[in-house]
Amino acid sequence: MLFMNIWFATNNAHKKQELEAIINMPLKIPAEEGIKFNPEETGTTFCENALLKAHELKKLLKAKNDLVIADDSGLCVDALNGRPGVFSANYGEKNGKKLLSNEKNLLLLEELENEIKRSARFVCTLVLLSDYDRFFIAQETLEGEIVKSIELARGTGGFGYDPIFLVPEYGRTLAELSAEEKNSISHRGKAGKIITSLLDKI
């Protein structure tokens, strides 16, 4: 099947830039193309939300042979029974007001203040969809630990929870890794490589 464009079902420019580097292909996102896209993420799993977003964007596209990639990802902390999980983007939200990334990081560290167990993982589900009933799903993880205090948050790379997520084998936070290092080991990097290998099957 010949396709014209690959769309990414997000309005997050950081995620777009990261995934473009992973799959080494240009992506279009709704916000940059004048398409109103703000689906309600009602799924209880990363897979459900990724598939929901893929289907919603596909409905809005004029070119029916365009492909859609959708992502749902988040941070799962063992001591918090997997929270914030699928609610990572809205963690700490009150009355519809979202917290900034540094505020979410501080809130998470406050919740873990006296917790010895710091294990956590990033989870990413990517969906590659060509038609409503034809799609591929890849889900991957990156294991790590949450730093013990906000003073140990380090790095200016990446986004979101990256400055407080320690990658033990590197001895650095995810935000301290170069883009190339991060993409080679990250949850999105690993899932993106699987999706890239499937493009020639569409």
| Intertermini distance | 6 Å
CATH architecture: Alpha-Beta Complex
Write down the CATH topology. Answer: Maf protein
Unreliable sequence segments: none
Number of strands: 6
Number of domains: 1
The assembly state of the depicted protein chains is: single chain
Main beta sheet: strand number and arrangement? 6 strands, mixed
Strand order of the largest sheet: 1-2-3-4-5-6
Give the helices and strands as they follow along the chain: EHHEHEEEEHH
Strand content: 15-25%
Structural class: alpha+beta
Number of helices: 5
- Specify Rg, calculated over alpha carbons: 17 Å
**Which range best describes the helical content: under 10%, 10-25%, 25-40%, 40-55%, 55-70% or over 70%?**
25-40%
CATH classification, class level: Alpha Beta
Overall 3D form: globular
Q: What does the average pLDDT come to?
A: 93
Q: What's the structural blueprint in terms of helices and strands?
A:
Layout: E1 6-8, H1 13-23, H2 46-60, E2 67-77, H3 101-111, E3 119-131, E4 134-146, E5 165-167, E6 172-173, H4 179-185, H5 187-198
Give a structural overview.
Strands 1-2-3-4-5-6 form a 6-stranded mixed sheet. It has one domain (6-201): Maf protein, CATH 3.90.950. With 202 residues, it is an alpha+beta fold. Helix content is 28%, strand content 22%. α1 (13-23) packs across α5 (187-198) and α4 (179-185) crosses α5 (187-198). A hairpin with a 2-residue loop joins β3 (119-131) and β4.
What's a quick, concise take on this entry?
Helix content is 28%, strand content 22%. The chain has 202 residues and is of the alpha+beta class.
